[in-house]
Structures are given as C-alpha cells and as structure tokens.
Amino acid sequence: MRLTIALVIGLAAVPAAAQRAPITKLLDKIPSVFGSGPKQPAITLPATPVILGLTHAADRSVPGDPVTFDLGGFRLGMSEAEVSAVIASRKLTSRGVTRYVDFESQVRSLINIRGGVGGVETRRGVLGEATLQDDAGGRYMLKTLVWPDGAHLSSIVYLAPQGTATAEWRRMLVEKWGRPREEQSGDTFGARWGGGAGAFRASANLGPRGGTVEIAQPEGSSQQPGTLVEQATAAFIAARAKKPTL
After folding, report:
1. Tens digits of per-residue pLDDT, 67-77?
2. I need a labelling partner for 183 at 20 to 30 A (CA). Which of 18, 84, 125, 221 fits?
3. CA–CA distance, 76 with 55 (Å, rounded to integer)
4. CA 99 to chain centre
C-alpha cells in the first residue's frame, strides 16, 4: 500500500508535459492498429486543351465574333478565379450559387460504376452555376463546364431591367459588339451575332420592359469534357486489367 501511494505522489509531482512526453514517444513507435486507411489509387488526368471560348477567354472583343465578346465583364472560357475577380471588381451581389464535383471525382465515380477500383471521390466543389445582381437591377446567370483544371464559363445570360429605350439598347450593343448578323427593330430590339449551327453565338431581345442578352458556346460543347472523363476512365481500367495466363 505504501508503495502504491508513493508512486502516485511521485507522478503528481512531475509536470504534465514531462508526464506526456515519454508516453507520446512510446506510442509513436507502435504501428496503428487501424493502419493508415485505404490507399487512393493514382489516376492520371488528361491535360486541359487550350480552346478559345471553352477553356481560355479572349483578351479583347472583336466586332461580330461572339467567342471574343464580353458581357458585363464576363467572357466565355473564363476560369473560376477569373469569374470571381469580375464579381469582386464589379461588386455584384450573389443570389445563388451551385457547385459541381470536380473532374477527378467524375473520373473516380465512373471507374467505380464500371467495376474498377477508382477509390473515394474527392468531391471538391467547383463553380457550376451562379446568379448575380448588379446595382441597376439586372441579373447575370452563369453556367460552367468542368474540365480537368477546373470550371470554365460556358454560358452567360443577362436579364436586363426595365426602363431603357429600345434605341438605346441597340446603340449600346452595336457599339460593344458591332453590327449583328440578323436584326429586327420595333417595340423591341432583336439581334443575333455569329454563325449558325456549330458556331459561337450571341443574341439579344430588349426593350423598355427589359429583356435578355446571351452569349453561348456551340451546341455539343458540353460533350468535350465528358469525352475526356471517358478517356481517363478507359485508360485507368486498361492499365489495371490483369492479363490472362495460358
């Protein structure tokens, strides 16, 4: 009994940090019973192609060429960081943001669906959609596509407020983008810039009651990052496939 009491008193007299130090060092030398957890399989992601208007934004506007147009400072192909910089510089108010899972998560998920071992999805969020309001009462609706290096702007729509004359809307847009390919004026100003199917396009339908302005990528553009997901998935599964022995 005296020995037990003496040990307790002696331990209490040692500073708390000194008490923990030997224990910590001892535990550090003992392998964890649970291990380090499942190891994530390495996945080789494809490089993001540099495509004007899809993954790279133009640095200036060219009259009549929608791939280069800016709408409120936004341009097709902008990265999430570039979009955020425009929002901050213009002090736009967020009215709603949707985030998508990143490219790597999409690849891992598809590998798992197809019977491979893709590991746990990273589920890092990238910008998917955003609704923003300016100080004049207009709203911007943005959408992106997810590429290997992140989200890039794929669609820009401006919901214009009422109160501006039709002629003034036309003057502003022609001055900004050049003369449209198609135009119709009356109570409202309707116009189209750019080519037909398979081309970048811009359009407007505006009048005293407001309206819409839009810049969009060619139809089918959304399939391109999806194709890269497919390719990365197929490459991973092929590399891990076990060859039969005859």
Report:
1. 999 999 999 99
2. 221
3. 8
4. 7
